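hi! just following up on the protien thing from before. the input was this:
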Amino acid sequence: MTTYTITGATGHLGSIVVQDMVKMVGAASLQAAVHTPAKATALNDQGIKTVKADYLDVDTMTAALQGTDVLVYIPSKTYDVLQRVTEFENTLTAMKNAGVSQIVFVSFYADQEDNPSTMSPYYAYAPRRLAGSGLQYAVVKNSLYADPLVPYLPELIERQALIYPVGDAAMSFIAQDDSAEAIATVAVKPELRNNGQVYTVTQIEAYTMDKLGAIMTEVTGKKIGYKPVSVAEFGRIYAPEGDGDELGSMYAGGAKGELGAVTTDFKTITGRDPEDMAHFLKARYQK
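and the predicted 3d structure came back as:
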């Protein structure tokens, strides 16, 4: 029996990956690596073993990975690039110590050399590091999550406009459920994961903000146009949420067209098309 360990297993994405993998391979094949196992009793109730994970402690990570065949690595949410790299390097060391040779690395598509996103150096570093690691691996790069758009709609209705500082550039999205399905599928199929494959999962279309606003207008029945603010202003608006500057830097890359990739990788992995934006919003928006 192949044993899979999933890091970040109680996070928004990780928890969905876990449930998808339960359906695919069964709970007994899974191990959830979490920062606080005492808070993961719901996983234990499903028959999923939980182990303590601390990306900054190699010994803890080594213990967590004992008996693992395939690691699904979902990184932490820190915006500290050096810490992210350190966490990843510690995990690679722990994999070596524990004899783990296969990894599915969850990434993000803002990894171009000239991308101004705060986290771009990390996203660019990790696949190159894996390429020289001697591990069997695959990288699944997410596009922007569509999910935050749903709770964002009341604010957009009040503003009557999207304000992302991306100008005329289009951005691509993926539903978190679809992202999780793609990650889980890659993890359980050796032919998809063990040859250095790099996937970018997106919907079948990227959207300019005018087009996205038109879809939102249709879904909500309220006019939502597009009135972009500057990157600096965007950072100030969302500074109270703790990541305004980081989000601003990401959308600065979007303005350069670096968040607009569209691929058929999701269908290559799953055999079906991803959920499109109009259907996604209609299914989840409550008027």
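Residues 4-142+174-202+261-274 form a domain with the Rossmann fold fold (CATH 3.40.50.720).
The chain has 13 helices and 13 strands.
cheers
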